[in-house]
What we know:
- 8% of the residues lie in helices and 57% in strands.
- The chain has 372 residues and is mostly beta strands.
- The protein has a single domain (2-17, 35-371), classed as Carbohydrate-selective porin OprB (Porin), CATH 2.40.160.
- It has a 16-stranded antiparallel beta barrel with strand order 1-2-3-5-6-7-8-9-10-13-14-15-16-17-18-19. It has a two-stranded antiparallel sheet with strand order 11-12.
- Strand 13 (244-257) and strand 14 (260-271) form a beta hairpin.
- The longest helix has 20 residues, at 2-21.
- The termini are far apart.
Amino acid sequence: MRLTMCLFLILISYISALANAEEGVLESAKSPELGSFLEKKTSLSLVARQFDEANIDRASLVGPHFNFSGALFLADQQSFVFDVVGIQEFGTSQSRFGENVPSNGIFANEAYFQWLRKRWTVEAGVINQGWLENELLFENQPFPAIKMQYDWRKEEDKRLSLFAQLAMPTSTRIKTRTTANQKEPTSMVLGSEYFRNKAEYKGKMKFYYYSLNNLPSEVAVESSVFGNSVTIPSASTARFDEEFQGFAFVFDLELFQEDLVWLLALKTLQNTTTESGYGFGQVVKLGARYKFYKREVTTNFVYFFNESDTSVASYNSYKYGHNNRLGYGLEAKLRYQENVDILLEVLSSDTINDSLVQNEITFLNFATKWTF
């Protein structure tokens, strides 16, 4: 842990030195008023989802999801970014572990301060981990964090960036979950991203190191029923059998062919502290975006597997069944109008290794989204 902290601080110092060597920031002719919106977006979704795990855990839920996000001007090159969602779900559920139940309330997906300079960005606050773009590691978890990114090369059609983040893993309600005499949990990410946009294709690659430490016993207990290897002498002394340190890779490619766009996505995760057969995960998506009766349609075939100890099961993908899972499915989106999208997800998965608490899962998600 001390070594990774040192690497994190060294990287921040190096990036800051590079940033300070750059020329001053270009000032705009007129700054916006304090507290004015630099950008904002409002959306309303009607979501219906169904979950069935071998007729043991079942849920049929429906309800509206209201989302409001934007950025408020604070000072030159400084802003406050936020994303808030309100959910009201209705339906029936039968759940052994409390996951497939109606969600109700107002939640912060993210809320952080952002500082910009010519080539670097610093963010501090509650940051949604969706920016890592790997559901096998984190889904849309909001963590208290500080993040720094340096755009080593930034042009209109290509970009090479370095990034680092230090975070405190929490639950989805922005609450740390520790018991007496336990250290605060930490999460670290160090990596780079390359983006390229040409007439024939658009692509992005992201590669990073991840590490999670001092995870509380409550998270270990919860993760044990979602596929992780956990020892549970008691609820307050439960611990993970494996450490969580390794590497993640994300690759997205769009190939343009007249009115057809071919889509390819690959996401991998490798926990380097585990034995073979316990620490590798992968998601492969192959699809296309095309016109159908003057409407834009996107379809993807999905294949995924995630071995038992790649990452913390409580934090990764619900729809992929967390850990110890192998499955496939279909994702589709219809752009009915400029501001209206219809989405469909159908996923099925089973266990890689036999489990007393995990069974075959079928997941269905249908949503209509209006953006204003």
